[in-house]
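Input (structure):
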């Protein structure tokens, strides 16, 4: 093979790799900021340790994260669902831009997670639990 045909082969291979990467990025779901936040909160609940996500909550509501009974109850709920697989935002179009809802997927089913943000982007209201819309057929 000549140097020119080697170069052409290299360029063709490079183009194929770039196209594969571009298509994979277009097809694959990238988590948005709020899905990443929901993932972090769900993982913190599973560990029964809200310290890593305290910064995501409004200062007025932050003391609720120290309520061991409440956090323990939510932790038991999350752990009972098995391995956490991830969050998918399900906020309806036209909703208040500070309201976000998610389906949290686990090995044993799904839970609904919702939160309301203040103008600074901190959580002021939070809920996770079973939902008819998050658990079709249950």
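Output (sequence):
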């Amino acid at each position: 093979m000549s140097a020119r045909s080697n170069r052409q082969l290299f360029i063709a291979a490079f183009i194929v790799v770039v196209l594969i990467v571009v298509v994979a990025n277009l097809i694959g779901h990238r988590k948005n900021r709020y899905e990443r936040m929901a993932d972090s909160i769900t993982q913190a609940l599973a560990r029964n340790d809200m310290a890593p996500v305290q910064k995501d909550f409004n200062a007025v509501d932050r003391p609720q994260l120290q309520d061991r009974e409440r956090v323990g109850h939510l932790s038991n709920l999350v752990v009972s669902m098995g391995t956490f697989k991830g969050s998918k935002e399900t906020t309806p179009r036209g909703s208040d831009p500070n309201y976000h809802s998610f389906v949290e997927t686990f090995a044993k089913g799904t839970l609904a997670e919702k939160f309301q943000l203040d103008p600074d982007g901190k959580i002021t209201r939070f809920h996770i639990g079973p939902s008819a819309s998050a658990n079709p057929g249950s």
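Notes: The chain has two domains: 1-30, 31-129. The radius of gyration is 21 Å.
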